[in-house]
Amino acid sequence: MKKSIVIFGVLLTSFFNSFGQVEYKIVTSVESIVPAGLGRSRLISANENKDYKEFTTTQTEEDNSRNKSNRDDIRVRNFDETKLLNFYNLGGIRFQNIAANDAVITSKINAMIDEGWELAFVNSAVESDAGEKDGQGIFITRYIFKRTKK
Predict the structure, then answer these.
(1) Cα separation, 88 vs 38, whole angstroms
(2) Predicted confidence (pLDDT) at residue 45 exceeds the cutoff of 60
(3) Cβ–Cβ contacts within 10 Å for residue 73, how many?
(4) Strand ranges, E, within the chain
(5) Secondary structure class of 75 (helix, strand, coil)
């Protein structure tokens, strides 16, 4: 009987230790709003992890030293880049391109859900054309997924 209680306790402890341990993954869509379709639009997903602590320094009033880490160490070279269509072409805004991008992004979201990820948050922003001389702009969306660690 005591053996059964101990085994049950170990199993219960193991269950609660694994419960709540979550990992996150971010997928970013960058859609060009550059006039005449000259920009590039992509869906980006990193395939490697980075530890932010390796690239973080603590700044104080007494010590204003710069972060000594090399920018090349921060770069991720292992990532998926899915082509998307630009919002504009020579004729102006292309609603067909927006629908096509929606279909591709939906496909990525559905694939991630099939892999056990849950869409937790969506965050978006735009930097739009600031006038006649700007000619630049992007619409960026971050899809933040989470799942229980394996």
Answers:
(1) 8
(2) yes
(3) 9
(4) 22-32, 41-46, 79-84, 88-89, 92-93, 118-127, 138-148
(5) coil
